[in-house]
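In this section we walk through a basic example: taking a raw amino acid sequence and producing a predicted 3D structure, encoded as discrete structure tokens. The instruction is simple. Fold the sequence below.
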Amino acid sequence: SKLYISSIQNLLKNEKKRSPNYSAKSNRLPIIRQYLSEIGNPQERNTVHIAGSKGKGSVASYISRALGDIGMRVGVYSSPHLSDWRERVQVNHEFVDDDQLAKSINLVIEVAPDSATFFDLLTASAFYSFSEMSLDCMVIEVGLGGRFDSTNVLQPIASLVTSIELEHSDVLGDSLSKIAYQKGGIYKKGSQLWCASEVPVEAKKVLREIADTFNQKLNVATYPELVAPDTPNFFASNKTLAVSVLASLGEPYSQGVDFLNNTSFDDLNLPGRFELRYSKEGRPIIFDVAHSPK
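The resulting token sequence is shown next.
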């Protein structure tokens, strides 16, 4: 529709805007909270918030699919996209209606300051779209880092860190402990605090220190004793984290555990995540979007 096309054009004008530094000095979160309050604080709902160097999209997908399987309506906000930017804003793995998203974008642009970035605006637009759609919960993936990320305006029921590796070091820091400090910035008092068992000891120490400031436990998702021998390590880690979080949240979330336990890697895996394809000549080709060495 014309409304949709116009809203996208307005949004894309902000695509190249970036915060000068990812730091406390350039913290935009108070400003984002201000214009979210002007549109009714759409971010205030049951949410699972996910940070990590890798695995965020997979864990978000596993959790949302498990909850969708038991009849819940789940909004998922993720980034980046592979082929269509609407992949970023979905409900039960379907794109949000174009006109609904256009309405949300235009509303957010009206109240947001000129300094707002593309990601700031799209994040707020996703929250508003979800608030209009009678959802049971949201699953929100961090864009970059966590502590100063545009999504970090939530009060989640669970905050997850999937992995910590050296990546975006120019922005997040040049050590695992510095990166862990940024990722762990999504941890909130009153939220269940989780990380995968594969998080390095040095980084896990920092995450525990953050949890300690809230007098809360850092929950570490550990593999079950029996894991199929052909299961890729990254899949086992991501699936274990998703299962552990759902089980710990109790009803109705825990009802989704059976779906994950009974669904294979091939049926759960996302496009571009160690995706095996074959050329016309039968040569195997692996497509993977990972941006860190491991």
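Looking at the output, two observations stand out. The CA atoms of residues 172 and 178 lie 7 Å apart. The first helix runs from residue 2 to 12. In the next section we compare this with other chains.
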